[in-house]
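Researcher: We plan to redesign the surface later, but first we want a full-length starting point. Tokens attached.
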């Protein structure tokens, strides 16, 4: 595991190289205050003060140097100096004219490496000094939670099956004094029939399961976090094409988000009674795979006509949401890599938010803006509820036609949430298709920092 705690340290005046972060609008003014040797170096690099310009600046002594970065990112952006966290040589650094703030997070995440299958880069830690020592612990926890999502999602399905998600929950439980309960295999058939149906075709060592973690004082407000844990999705008998299956190791990205958010809640010791639920399955193909046209029982008591075995995530979430609601939580949040329609609508970086609770919507959207971890609200459009109508059952899992696919998937989930319970659904991509500073291509956490900020504010210590 990456040692983030060694990368952000209190500034006690120890020797460090200086980083000048200059906004393009302030570049000319800054340059005018610099000694001639700096101006000469900048001119030799032919810098004009546009965002992204950078140069190594000479110091007073022969072995002394500083770093210049022209950056138009906001002072509150975690990614303000992330490009330097990934590129500077090992050593100790401090910012010249601005507080570190959220930039410490990007600095650390830029140094995180997924090394399960390759040797790590041996460059050594780049240390950033901060005058705000009180913020270090939380920033480290956010980095660790983000890295958890990335590492879980990046892991190949051969090493990340339902049992491995269970092991990840057990590790968290041991760290924070929580308890884990698991319902596996055929034991799901009566209590969680949709989880059982989706996962029954997998090999015995990849048997489906519902993983539940509980933590906190039962007297505190109860909150539930639910994460889709489809560890690999072939599409089932409605099999995906090879291109569509290529990244389906990431279909447990919702579970990764829920585990990471649970870790933040427990590490911060928020005064809540936490209930984490992960329906963990592999949507495999075998003689006993569930079929198009099958009518599935549910924990809720509804019947579901399965019109598409590749719309399995909403099925396993339905049983998990029902279980979550039985304990009368004050809040349910679910995360799922649920629909391609969400990506078509909003792209990979902007997860759609669905909720009927106006206060919850406002709190989440505000936290997204504040944390620069945005989401975008899409409607639970009641008129589309009729698209879920079935001729032979209470509902279908996937309407024909493909219209409003992210909306109808959210409407399906809503049927399994108790009326009057505050609930939000986040359709996250959990993957970054191209690299950005501090954010490599691969598994990624979306809306994680925002949802934690909302919970920390709502359930303040």
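Model: Full-length starting sequence:
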């Amino acid at each position: 595991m990456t040692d983030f705690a060694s990368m952000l340290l209190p500034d006690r005046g120890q020797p460090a190289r200086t980083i000048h972060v200059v906004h393009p609008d302030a570049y000319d003014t800054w340059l005018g205050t610099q000694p001639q040797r700096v101006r000469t170096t900048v001119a030799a690099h032919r810098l004009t003060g546009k965002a992204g310009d950078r140069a190594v600046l000479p110091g007073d002594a022969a072995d002394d140097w500083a770093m210049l970065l022209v950056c138009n990112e906001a002072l509150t952006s975690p990614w303000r100096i992330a490009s330097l966290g990934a590129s500077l040589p090992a050593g100790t650094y401090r910012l010249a004219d601005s507080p570190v703030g959220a930039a410490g997070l990007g600095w650390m995440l830029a140094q995180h490496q997924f090394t399960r299958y390759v040797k790590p880069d041996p460059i050594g830690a780049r240390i950033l000094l901060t005058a705000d020592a009180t913020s270090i612990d939380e920033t480290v926890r956010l980095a660790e939670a983000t890295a958890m999502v990335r590492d879980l999602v990046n892991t190949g399905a051969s090493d990340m099956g339902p049992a491995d998600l269970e092991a990840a929950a057990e590790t968290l439980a041991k760290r924070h004094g929580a308890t884990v309960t698991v319902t596996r295999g055929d034991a799901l058939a009566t209590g969680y029939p949709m989880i059982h149906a989706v996962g029954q075709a997998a090999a015995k060592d990849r048997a489906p399961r519902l993983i539940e973690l509980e933590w906190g004082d039962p007297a505190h407000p109860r909150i539930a976090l639910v994460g889709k844990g489809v560890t690999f999705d072939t599409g089932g008998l409605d099999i995906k094409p090879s291109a569509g299956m290529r990244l389906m190791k990431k279909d447990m990205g919702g579970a990764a988000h829920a585990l990471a958010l649970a870790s933040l809640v427990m590490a911060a010791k928020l005064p809540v009674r936490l209930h984490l639920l992960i329906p963990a399955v592999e949507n495999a193909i075998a003689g006993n795979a569930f079929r198009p046209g099958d009518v599935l029982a549910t924990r809720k008591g509804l019947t579901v006509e399965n019109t598409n075995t590749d719309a399995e995530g909403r099925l396993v979430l339905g049983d998990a949401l029902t279980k979550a609601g039985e304990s009368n939580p004050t809040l349910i949040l679910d995360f799922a890599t649920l629909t391609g329609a969400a990506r078509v609508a909003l792209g990979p970086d902007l997860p759609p938010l669905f909720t009927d609770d106006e206060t919850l919507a406002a709190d989440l959207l505000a936290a997204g803006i504040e944390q620069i971890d945005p989401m975008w609200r899409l409607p639970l459009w009641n008129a589309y509820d009729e698209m879920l109508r079935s001729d032979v059952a209470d509902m279908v899992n996937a309407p024909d036609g493909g219209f409003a696919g992210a909306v109808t998937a959210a409407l399906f989930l809503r049927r399994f949430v108790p009326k009057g319970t505050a609930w939000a659904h986040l359709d996250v991509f959990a993957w970054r298709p191209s690299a950005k500073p501090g954010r490599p291509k691969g598994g990624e956490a979306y809306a994680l920092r925002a949802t934690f900020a909302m919970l920390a504010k709502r359930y303040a210590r």
